[in-house]
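Proteins fold reproducibly. Look at a sample protein:
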Amino acid sequence: MKYSPRSDGRKFIIPSFLFIVALCVLAFINEVRFDSFLSFGRCALSNVPRNSSSLETPLLSSSSDDDEIRILIGILTLPDQYPRRHFLRMIYGTQDVPAGVKIDVKFVFCNLTKEDQKVLVALEIMRYDDIIILNCNENMNKGKTYTYFSSLPDLFNETDAPNPPYHYVMKADDDTYIRQESLVASLRPLPREDLYYGYVIPCPSMDPFVHYMSGMGYLVSWDIAVWLKDSEIPKKHLEGPEDKVFGDWIREGRRGKNRFNAKWSMYNFPEPPTRCTHELWPDTIAVHLLKNQEKWIRTLNYFNVTSNLKPSKLYHIP
């Protein structure tokens, strides 16, 4: 039989071709499987928290010190204003404050001068422990505000107390309604040092660096109270409209580099209308000039302060 090299070559080419085709098919299948595996891996990893790896240090939550806010509200009033103090205790004692927040409301006045005051105010202190009696003669614009702020560092200097005892200290009038939760919310993003906060005067102004904050209620960080105690500046200028004089101290002492104008979340009661008034509205921190019960009731009704009254068989309030 005659040998044909062409025939043997065909026999070799055909299996080789089939083998190559098989390799290509196998490679294609593997590529599809690999891509699918990668897609699955990307999908799975996208649902894993970035810090879930045991090799990474877990992020620490914010410290309680950062979340905690301590505020002292000093309501400047007169010793004989017993009904007003009892009324305000109801107003502030029924307000809720967020967790981690401490708000102390204190009533502030000067030395007692009557025998009945010595008994009645003493009973109030025994019952409520919310009164500060300053060593001064009662006045409005002759240094009472200075005595209040400058006395605080010595009044609250307990060694076992937090430092500072309060992050913020406030002076408020007794005809001002302060919504504590709104006050706290406005303070959370603000600095805790060298802060001067309130309703800027004059009423049309929105620039807290021009003049001063209204006496309806202004607040400073604790370090400013300490500065007032030690500085000679306020001692040289005690008399005059207390809020304006306070602004003068801040300006002359180059304090209050951080300022916050709470207008129009702080405002005067809407009637009679002036450039300082505003309609009652939800975004409210403080309402001022509540000079009579009618204005107080309108304000309290607007903010629905009795909404948490629990039902009981003991009373019926329509």
The longest strand covers residues 101-109. Residues 29-64 have pLDDT under 50 and may be disordered. The radius of gyration is 35 Å. The chain has one domain: 66-303.
